[in-house]
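Hi all, long-time lurker, first post. I run a small reading group and we've been trying to get comfortable going from sequence to structure in the token notation. Rather than ask abstract questions, I figured I'd post a concrete chain and ask someone more experienced to write out its structure so we can walk through it together at our next meeting. Sequence below, copied exactly:
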Amino acid sequence: MIRFNDISVVLQGPVQASAERLQVPGITHHCIASIREFLPGATVILSTWEGQGYSGLIPDILLLNQDPRPNVIAKNVHGNVLYQNFNRQIVSTQQGLSSVTTKYAVKLRADNYLLGNQFVFYQQDFPKRAVADRRFQQRVVFSSCYFRKFSEGFEVIMHPSDYFNTA
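-- Answer (accepted) --
Happy to help. Here is the structure in token form:
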């Protein structure tokens, strides 16, 4: 059985609302509180970027990464540049996971929160695995929310949600 103190939760992303991203006020506070409630003893790692307002947040580890800035993904029909936060997501997730010292890790967006801890037990359920389909030594649990099979009419392979992952 997995003990909660063997888990680190990497909170990744912005921790405050901005003109580019509206958020529920206090959502990251709520996120941390949900981890403390449902995974008591787990290590909370907040990995965001410089310039984020983290006042009042109490993670076990705070990582303020250099902001890689949003990346350009396209231009719309009017010639306006469209941006996404993929660069920020990559940097904050990678830096957060690099700081994990526990046996298990959960990656959760800083604008989401837990409603329970049942996912912990799923990680070791269903012991039979097809060797040919194995990609990792341990199971990875993903949320099916926003798990894509198609994007802009094209089939995509291995596009898990960025909302929640655990291994």
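A couple of things your group might point at:
The first helix runs from residue 27 to 38.
The two ends are 14 Å apart (CA to CA).
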